[in-house]
Amino acid sequence: MQFVSTRKNKEPISFSQAISRCICPDGGYYVPAYSENLRQWIYYLNDKTSFSSIAGSLTTALMKEEFSPIICETIATKAFNFSPEFRQIDDSLYKLSLYTGPTGSHKDFGVSFLLAYLEYTLLLKRERATVVAISDGEIGSCLAHAMQGKKQLTALILYSKGTLRGFKEEDCVWNGGNIYPVEVNGSMEDCSHMVRELFSRQDIVEKYNLTLANTFNIGRLLPQTFFYTYAFSRLKDKVFGDIFYALAPGNYSNLVAGLYAWKFSLPVNGFITECTPALTVDTGGKAQILDSLIPLEQRQPADPGNPSNLERLEEIFNTHPAMLRGLVFPVPVSEEERTAACKELFMKYGILANKETSGSYAAAKKRTESFSSPDNTVVLVSRDHPAYSRDEIRHVCGEAPTVPDFLQELLIPITPQKTMDCTVDAVLSVLQELE
Questions:
Q1: Phi (first) and psi of residue 139, to 5 degrees
Q2: What pLDDT is stored for residue 290 in this prediction?
Q3: pLDDT (0 to 100) of residue 297
Q4: DSSP structure class, residue 26
Q5: Global pTM value
Q6: pLDDT at 371
Q7: Distance from CA of residue 285 to its chain's centroid?
Q8: What CA–CA distance (Å, rounded) separates 264 from 45?
Q9: What are the TM regions of this chain, as residue ranges (predicted)?
Q10: What pLDDT does 163 receive?
């Protein structure tokens, strides 16, 4: 598979190049250069196929130009010793839970795949790389766990002030490990600005072989397409009508990944999500991206410190304008509707849901077409463990989700051993220390 920029540069590059370069020189995002027909792979799967096997099959199909099936299967097997949970909760309603990884976050899947891929390819080339991430706790936990056992990688995790948690001291560089967690004297926004400036310095990126762990990196985003293929493998022999996915917008990465799965020939009839200031509906009720009113050449370079993936979504809309307007369904959801949905999920199904999952359910219910036929199926995508929103859920439902032991450990604050100012020079000092 090959990739091109969302902006001027349409010269295709390989998957490995897109991951290692990470930053498009023209200020855009890397996206698939063409659609892949994976129908023969997708229809071969069934509800007995494990998630790691699905990931291995799709990795093989997408990377056949670069790696053998054995290598692709090895990467997927090393990445995924965990799986999403998929279950039926009503006649036409299913739930796809993505918080079943080691840190209770949907990010576990993308981070684990990215690091397994990097580790294997760096080993082949006998090179090393440094993965950079900004964290207020969650992504740092994902990265710290996924880094265990990696010999070719070091992770520089920049925590905003007061948010250090989610790792073990023995995994730190100064104790012989491979992560360097440091508290930055600044907010998440300050850290984002610092990383943006850091990755604008191509000389630094090349010297220290830097890459990103967020969804700016296509290697973090692409494995999220596996979610939808996994769900379909569980549905294909059970349902025969339309399939809709209801999901939170977030930074649009899961929505973009779902649309890539559709471009790879996955059967799907629509993605339902809450409206946002950027993704809304026009006067005719069709999906509209307001940023599209500003030409790409008049925009600032994409922000590697805080990716939105909206530009990737635009690229899909521009390529398939008519089709996409009949495939993406943004729905306005009020706070009252979200709260009512949270209560209904608890009272009717015993599900304690955070506001993102509740909002997705409310959007699906308002999009009456999704439930208008008894043959239609809605898959409710739940991203993160409800225990992360324990107080919020207790306030609405009167009951709070149990915090599992592994999550309790991840939530314990850690006293920083390393701190730094929020400047590129301070980052450079750390990178020199890691040489």
A1: -65, -30
A2: 81
A3: 76
A4: T
A5: 0.94
A6: 63
A7: 28
A8: 15
A9: none
A10: 94
**Which pair of tokens denotes residue 325?**
């307007």
Residue-wise DSSP of 83-134: --EEEEEETTEEEEE---STTSSTHHHHHHHHHHHHHHHHHHHT--EEEEEE
What backbone phi and psi angles, to 5 degrees, belong to 82?
A: -140, 165
Measure the CA–CA gap between 342 and 434, rounded to whole angstroms: 47
Distances (CA, A) of 14 to 4, 21, 37, 74, 391: 9, 10, 18, 19, 45
Residue 380's nearest CA partner among 83, 87, 54, 82 is 87
Classify strands 30-32 and 2-5 as parallel, antiparallel or unpaired: antiparallel
Describe the strand order of the beta sheet including 129-135 as a list of residue ranges.
210-212, 129-135, 153-160, 179-184, 419-420
Q: Would you say the C-alpha torsion 252, 254, 257, 263 has a positive or negative sign?
A: negative
CA angle 340, 348, 95 (to 5 degrees): 90
Q: With helix as H, strand as E and coil as C, how does 395-413 read?
A: HHHCCCCCCCHHHHHHCCE
Token pair in block for residue 67: 């790696």
CA distances from 405 to 317, 350, 402, 411, 413 (A): 43, 21, 9, 10, 15
Please list the rounded mean pLDDT of every run of 10 residues in the chain (435 residues): 87 89 89 88 90 94 89 94 96 96 96 96 93 92 95 96 93 96 95 94 93 95 96 92 94 95 93 94 85 77 89 85 83 96 97 97 86 83 96 96 93 94 95 91
